[in-house]
Amino acid sequence: MSSRRLLLMNSNKRIALIAHDNRKRDLLDWVRGNRGVLMHHELFATGTTGSILSAELGLHITKFVSGPFGGVQQLGAALVEGRIDLVIFFSDPLQPHPHDVDVNALLRIAVVYNIPVACNRATADFMVSSPLMREEYRRLTMGIEDQLVRWIPATATATATEQDGSLSLKGLS
User: Fold this and answer.
1) Which of 23-32, 67-76, 163-172 has the lowest mean pLDDT?
2) What's this model's pTM, rounded to 2 decimal places?
3) Sheet with 61-63, edge to edge strand ranges
4) Which of 29, 15, 69 lies closest to 47 in space, CA to CA?
5) CB atoms within 10 A of CB 151
6) Measured distance CA(148)–CA(151) in Å, rounded
7) Is 87:117 a contact under the CB 8 Å cutoff?
8) 3-state secondary structure the chain
9) What are the b/e assignments for 72-98, b being 16+ CB within 10 Å?
């Protein structure tokens, strides 16, 4: 049985805005230029980015904590829970970041849940200028439950036990 789901994006999108430190000015400029479109949608951002955008542009933005302190993980959870429709993430691929693993996990979750992601100005421009920004859209998820079924044989049963702080599974081969 397929577990793929169609998830509805309303015409009022829930948009996450994120930028690495070296790209915050670029994102600010981009949001300023697209303020007229973005003000009709619900905006979310990681802490520092959200504070800058809110202070500079007077937009109402729901803020997560700062990215390296768990904000990227909070955003990933919001993607899984269906609380974010699309992500605009101006990343800095030329600098190492202490939370790179969190960013990679966020992008992986976006693929699994079929969340549109723009990682640069050109893609963000295409995304917000699309007619789909103004109408409902149904996106099909990858069906994570389908993936789990491939890993666990149908006849296997598992029990989890915790010993000395570590978790072990018994009954799976």
Assistant:
1) 163-172
2) 0.78
3) 61-63, 42-45, 14-19, 86-90, 117-118
4) 69
5) 8
6) 5
7) yes
8) CCCCCEEEECCCCEEEEEECHHHHHHHHHHHHHCHHHHCCCEEEECHHHHHHHHHHHCCCEEECCCHHHCHHHHHHHHHHCCCCCEEEEECCCCCCCCCHHHHHHHHHHHHHCCCCEECCHHHHHHHHHCHHHHCCEEEECCCHHHHHHHHCCCCCCCEEEEECCEEEEECCC
9) bbbbbebbeeeebbbbbbbbeeeeebe
The answer to whether 45 and 14 have CB atoms below 8 angstroms apart is no
Q: Which two tokens stand for residue 116?
A: 């549109």
**What does the block give as tokens for 92?**
């800095």
- The angle at the Cα of 128, spanning 109 to 107, to the nearest 5 degrees, equals 15
Q: Tokens for 137?
A: 């859209």
State the Cα angle at 43 between 67 and 136, rounded to 5°. Answer: 125
Nearest to 86 by CA among 166, 9, 172, 168: 9
| Amino acid identity for residue 5 in this structure | R
Per-residue pLDDT reduced to its tens digit, 61-91: 999 998 888 888 999 999 988 999 999 999 8
| Residues counted in the chain | 173
